[in-house]
């Protein structure tokens, strides 16, 4: 049951998108009360279905599924009927596809003047890259993700989650909520052009702008902090040390100075000093943390007010007492799958969305 107070109750979103960005955006809106109708191609459906039922379920739980062949006259007409009383359409095709199908924003607005159309594409509807293929790594690469130096021993590595897709889905969901509410007030919809590349740049541009001044000497960038890093422990585990404010460095000295006198070096007492001796500070910490196991370090440092955390593995993550106390994860005993709840706690409450994953075309007709 959706909450009566939700501003998205009664909002109908028709979702043509596949894989992650669009479906994740509409999943968030569904958690906030919207009714999401997922339109999939007959036969195979969303390619995410081929990645396994658990993967598909995570961002399509609680939606309805309708199978339509948009290339056919019958499917095209059925889609237009579907959007007559809808608030928004979300699509993730390359620019020009919806127009070739006869389903661009102008065509949809003729059927429903207050429809909001959200187009999520790699590089947007315009610009020299707009027709190029791409996936998450491409948008991160061209969006400057690796242009920002952050570690003394910096290295380029693939991110563990699809950051670009999630950046786009979050911006798309916010824009959709605003545009739908605006259309309900003034009766006029609009076309939202969401570029995954643009959304990456919204995150990277501030730090990348500063990094230009250190292109020849990346180590000199203020974004490289020798004591704000990840360090390996004796047992091959890793520890995150999040020192930013100088008070935490002073606390670290208090906690470990007796065992590691090098921490007491006056050259390192201030942030400015540590920035001048980045290699020395980072090497000192790396050597120090290799002397004990992760468990030993956590036991040693837990009595002090320090931003120190273990890098949890996948099993530890879901057993973590804070994760369990916050109730972020819904586990389904019947098939061992899970769903992530909306990450903002509403004091008025936010009931869980549906518990079922739609079969392909389950809600046809």
UniProtKB/TrEMBL annotation:
UniProt cross-references to InterPro entries, sorted A to Z: CoA-transferase_III, CoA-Trfase_fam_III, CoA-Trfase_III_dom3_sf, CoA-Trfase_III_dom_1_sf
Keywords of the record: Transferase
Pfam families per UniProt: CoA_transf_3 (PF02515)
Superkingdom of the organism of origin: Bacteria
EC number: 2.8.3.19
Gene3D superfamilies to which the protein is assigned, alphabetical: Crotonobetainyl-coa:carnitine coa-transferase, domain 1, formyl-coa transferase, domain 3
GO molecular function, one term: transferase activity
The keyword NAD belongs to this UniProt entry's keyword annotation: no
Protein name in the entry: Acetyl-CoA:oxalate CoA-transferase
Native source species: Paraburkholderia metrosideri
